[in-house]
Amino acid sequence: MKWTVLFFLLFSISCTQNDPNFDHLRKVMIKNQLQSRGIRDDAVLDVMRSVERHNFVPENYRDRAYSDGPLPIGHGQTISQPYIVAFMTEQLQVSSQHKILEIGTGSGYQAAILGELAKHVFTIEIIPELAEGAKNILNHLSYKNITVRAGDGYKGWPEEAPFERIMVTAAPTEVPQELIDQLAPGGRMILPVGAQFLVQYLWVIEKDDQGTVTKEKILPVRFVPMVKE
Ligand code: SAH
Asked: Angle at which helices 42-50 and 82-92 pack, to 10 degrees?
């Protein structure tokens, strides 16, 4: 009898430390923010359910980690709205064979989502402190297939190119040609394009097996600008 009491005591202590409320809030987020807006891909829904967004949010915003919007991550940058992360991930059509390039690591959350689905994610962040922070949290969470580097995303990552998939999470005013060049034949890229205070759109760029590039505008969005060094 005493052992049962002790077990329940230890169980409830470990639950408070983990804040079980986050698991609940994440389930609600999946239903109310993602499924209700048309996210259908089970693999995407599963990773949005398993990756803990609160680990990527600064301490003082943690209680809002599952709210329906972007949140500040310091240095004037933001972690994207969960719906946008899920939408872009679904549109990218990722498989476990893919090598992915992400531009704009930020908090590292989107990289973690992609890392769960792909073979390897290479991600570039222009603000060294954010790159360092993302590297630390991704190491702490034991992601072995995500490589973070501080640098200018306009140049892509030529040593690792070509990439089957590219995702850009900051908005350039035009699609950077270097990134199109680093897309593999049969590859797909998603990125927001447009000036900071004007309407930006998400574009899907495809490169077929012959190297022909097509572009499609799919959704109006608001992203931080992709800055030039
Ligand atoms: N994907 C991030 C959200 C990114 S916000 C997440 O999951 O949290 C966009 C990020 O792009 C910012 O951190 C910003 O510093 C970075 N950025 C802007 N211009 C860049 C550039 N030229 N190269 C690399 N990163 C850039």
From this structure: 140
Domains and CATH numbers, the chain: 3-221 (3.40.50.150)
Q: What pLDDT was estimated at residue 18?
A: 54
Give the ligand 1 atom nearest the CA of 130: 13
Predicted TM-score of the model (pTM): 0.92
**58: how many CB neighbours lie within 10 A of its CB?**
14
Residue 3 CA, ligand 1 centroid: distance in Å: 51
Across residues 99-105, what is the average pLDDT? 98
Q: Classify residue 168 as exposed, middle or buried by CB count within 10 Å of its CB (0-12, 13-18, 19+).
A: buried
- Are residues 73 and 125 in contact, defined by beta-carbon separation less than 8 angstroms? no
- CB burial readout 4-24, b (16+ within 10 A) else e: eeeeeeeeeeeeeeeeeebee
Q: What's the half-sphere exposure (Cβ side, CA atoms, 13 Å) at 172?
A: 19
Residue 56 CA: nearest ligand 1 atom is 8
Is 33 touching ligand 1 by the criterion CB < 6 Å? Answer: no
CA of residue 107 to ligand 1 center, whole Å: 9
Token digits of residue 36: 């209700």
pLDDT value for 20: 62
pLDDT bucket at 229, cuts 50 / 70 / 90: confident
